[in-house]
Design goal:
This protein is α/β, with parallel strands linked by helices. Helices cover about 40% and strands about 20% of the residues. Strands 1-15-14-13-12-11-2-3-7-4 form a ten-stranded mixed sheet, sandwiched between helices. The chain has a five-stranded antiparallel sheet with strand order 5-6-9-8-10. A two-stranded antiparallel sheet has the order 16-17. Strand 12, helix 12 and strand 13 form a beta-alpha-beta unit.
Length: about 375
């Protein structure tokens, strides 16, 4: 006897997701990776690496390119900080002494700020996402975790008049308040529940690194000042780690909330120190869910965990891992919106499509910024 091949039904999945998102009792979070900013037109890590290399010169370029051969951009920054922390006197590691490592670190961060803050972008995807956050009427505030340095989410939340707390208190030189980040709803002095939470796990274009603390500026960090981008991984620089370790602990707490739902978009699953909290929480909390939306294929690391952890689900264009079963999508028998099904594939792995799907689940008016485009030409063709 032969059995029919298993296929996942996209309408069943999206209907179920809509129902779960409608439950006020759930603790809902979103985790946004570099792909979400790329969907708005910003350069991804690979593009940044090429641009930075092209703008460096002399020994700085040589050292940067050499470090980049076996590392990505953030690993290069981590390596430079480790060298700066442990090298003494005239000793060299990778051809760098402490001062040259520190100078190169500062120059790379300066170029990152310059490139990301001046790149043209379309706010439509993040605006739709912010419209969903604006109408998210849960008993607990929505928590937004991101590893992106840019200010797109902040701009979109402002466009949609969404109040939010990012761990800092103040305006022009805001101070990080660990006590407020760590506060729970039972604490006497906690942030109001109507405020969304925005946690930037790898820093931001407007975080300035001082000698003893990080402050958030009202604008991107000016040239010549050190930006607090990507956490140092060395114990020798505790002052550089304070916001980051507190925020990563906040991620762990959010993932371990009972009955939680976490949507992951634009993340490559290549960062072990971030993967571990997701994998650990889904194993420990079987009634909580993590849904990873991948733009293309499923990373091996994620697939290995998803097939043995039913509450860790993965969605891509052509296949999904749902309930531990990896299978392709079945073509729907009825017409579906293009943010769900487009060009005979599931569209939700694209952050632009996912944000439209979320926004449609609300009644909030979508206040598109004047410089954004509401629909791509493809969407117009599909809707014609």
């Amino acid at each position: 006897m032969t059995f029919p091949a298993i296929e996942h039904d996209v309408l069943t999945f999206t209907s179920g997701l809509s129902a779960r998102l409608a439950s006020r009792s759930r603790h809902v979070s979103a985790f946004l990776g570099a792909g979400t900013s790329k969907a708005c037109g910003l350069p991804d890590v690979a593009q940044l690496q090429k641009t930075i290399s092209a703008k460096l010169s002399g020994s700085e370029k040589s050292h940067f390119d050499a470090l980049l051969k076996s590392r990505d951009l953030e690993q290069v920054l981590s390596r430079l900080r480790r060298i700066a922390a442990i090298v003494e006197g005239s000793d060299l590691i990778d051809g760098l002494d402490a001062k040259s490592a520190t100078d190169l670190d500062a120059r790379v961060c300066e170029l990152i700020v310059s490139e990301v803050s001046t790149s043209a972008c379309d706010l439509t995807p993040v605006t739709a996402f912010a419209a969903w956050v604006a109408r998210a009427d849960y008993t607990r505030p929505v928590e937004i975790f991101t590893v992106n340095y840019d200010l797109l989410i902040e701009q979109a939340l402002d466009e949609q008049a969404v109040p939010y707390f990012d761990g800092f208190v103040g305006t022009t030189r805001a101070r990080f308040r660990s006590d407020l980040v760590e506060a729970t709803s039972s604490d006497e002095h906690h942030i109001p529940g109507l405020f969304a939470r925005l946690w930037k796990l790898h820093g931001s274009l407007n975080w300035e690194q001082g000698k003893s603390l990080v402050v958030r500026l009202g604008v991107p960090v000016p040239s010549g000042s050190p930006a607090a981008i990507y956490p140092s991984d060395t114990k020798y620089e505790e002052s550089r780690r304070v916001p980051f370790v507190v925020l990563q602990d906040r991620l762990r707490r959010a993932l371990n909330e009972p009955e939680s739902l976490t949507l992951v978009s634009g993340y490559s699953w290549s960062d072990e120190h971030l993967n571990e909290p997701f994998f650990e929480a889904t194993k420990r909390r079987p009634r909580s869910e993590v849904i990873a939306f991948c733009y293309e294929s499923i990373p091996d690391t994620l697939a290995e965990q998803a097939v043995i952890t039913p509450n860790l689900q993965v969605v891509t264009k052509t296949e999904a891992i749902l309930g531990g079963i990896r299978a392709p999508w079945r073509a729907p028998a009825e017409s579906l919106p293009t943010d769900i099904w487009k060009n005979n594939t599931v569209a939700l792995g694209d952050f632009g499509a996912l944000s439209k799907f979320l926004a449609r689940a609300t009644t909030a008016p979508l206040l598109l910024p004047a410089h954004s485009v509401a629909d791509t030409e493809d969407d117009k063709d599909d809707n014609a």
